[in-house]
């Protein structure tokens, strides 16, 4: 049985694109080069009124300005503007961060909501 949106009383459309690639591209621009995506996953998410995707992202920074890049990414992350056509970022947080093999890393969680 297909899921239904209670607000609009119609089948939830499954054809929407995953905003993760655009979000990753914007995170990389915000962090600067060289930044590596170690891991990125996306899974469907829904509440009674909204549908979207939950994302888990781990970024690693290298080079002489790696710590500065990590700090730049983290600073003001929750106020950042994201351009995701058909979606918006409802929440983005830093779950953890640290250093491994002298390379800083950050683990992020984001919730994107489909913009009706």
Mean pLDDT: 86
- Portion of residues in beta strands equals over 45%
| Element order: H for helix, E for strand | EEHEEHEE
| N-to-C CA distance | 22 Å
Rough shape? elongated
Number of helices: 2
Radius of gyration: 16 Å
Number of strands: 6
Spatial sequence of strands, sheet with the most strands: 3-4-6-5
Uncertain stretches of 5 or more adjacent residues: 9-13
Oligomer: single chain
Counting helices, strands and paired strands, the structural category is alpha+beta
Report a brief summary of the structure.
The chain has 116 residues and is of the alpha+beta class.
Give structural attributes.
single chain; 116 residues; alpha+beta; 2 helices
Task: Give a verbal description of the structure.
With 116 residues, the chain is an alpha+beta fold. The chain contains 2 helices and 6 strands. Strands 3-4-6-5 form a 4-stranded antiparallel sheet. Strands 1-2 form a two-stranded antiparallel sheet. A hairpin with a 4-residue loop joins strand 3 (35-46) and strand 4 (51-61). The longest helix is centred in the N-terminal third of the chain and has 12 residues, at 20-31. The radius of gyration is 16 Å and the shape is elongated. Mean pLDDT is 86; it is low at 9-13.
Helix and strand arrangement:
Layout: E1 4-5, E2 10-11, H1 20-31, E3 35-46, E4 51-61, H2 66-74, E5 87-100, E6 103-114
Antiparallel strand pairs: 1-2, 3-4, 4-6, 5-6
């Amino acid at each position: 049985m297909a899921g239904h949106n209670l607000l609009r009383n119609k089948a939830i459309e499954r054809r929407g694109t995953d905003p993760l690639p655009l979000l990753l591209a914007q995170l990389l621009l915000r962090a600067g080069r060289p930044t590596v995506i170690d891991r990125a996953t996306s899974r469907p998410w829904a509440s009674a009124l909204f549908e979207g995707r939950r994302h888990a992202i781990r970024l690693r920074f290298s080079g002489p300005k790696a710590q500065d890049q990590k700090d730049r990414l983290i600073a003001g992350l929750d106020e950042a503007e994201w351009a995701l056509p058909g979606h918006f970022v409802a929440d983005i947080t830093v779950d953890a961060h640290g250093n491994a093999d002298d390379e800083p890393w950050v683990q992020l969680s984001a919730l994107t909501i489909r913009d009706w």
